[in-house]
Amino acid sequence: MRTGVGAVAAPAVVALVSGCVRLPAAELLAAQENRFADAYMQLLPVGPVMDAAAEQDSRWPLDKRSALVSTRQLNCVRSGLTSAQITPRQRQSALAYAKAHPDTLMGDLRVLESGAARLFGQSVMQGAGVGPEPVAATSQEKAAITALSTAPEFAPLRRFTGIDQLVDGAAQDAGQRGRQFGQRLLVPYLTDAFVRCHIPVKLLF
Predict the structure, then answer these.
(1) What is the pLDDT along the chain (205 residues), one digit of tens a residue?
(2) Phi-psi category of 143—alpha, beta or left, where left has phi over 0 and alpha has psi -120 to 50?
(3) Do the Cβ atoms of 30 and 166 come closer than 8 Å?
(4) Cβ of 65: how many Cβ atoms within 10 Å?
């Protein structure tokens, strides 16, 4: 007869192997929220886009207007617009949304993880002229991006991510919608960096 730790541990091992172990509700929800944050980061790769822009142009994000600020100010604003700085803010925003929308979280996760996040994020990278060669979409991914773009249940997610500007502006041409989407996505981070580095925000425009 087994006694001690072995006897106690054996049922737990059997349950784990058989797939019967379930996380407590709070831990399961936290795991889902973190998965949503991961998918959100893939959907909107702001940090990688800004990293690539900075690498390509030493005067970015001011370009010719960099002559109007000091070297210290330019270095300050560039250091505030890296993945290391932006990613935690994006992740915090995604987690806050997930926590505020527990009833739709699983549906949002399904559509994002089914390929909508990968496809849209790939298009963002390609639109910015960065990233690897695009990978063709599978039929499942095409269905996911269509659902994200059009299904009524994903309207709150579209508004949160800014995708609504791309799919709801039928009267505008695609180029104009794309520019507006890019501004909505990037300007908050740019504005904060400019203010922190004491650069007039008017130099953004």
Answers:
(1) 444 444 444 444 444 444 455 667 889 999 999 999 999 999 999 999 999 999 999 999 999 999 999 999 999 999 999 999 999 999 999 999 999 999 999 999 999 999 999 999 999 998 888 877 889 999 999 999 999 999 999 999 999 999 998 886 555 566 677 777 878 888 999 999 999 999 999 998 7
(2) alpha
(3) no
(4) 15
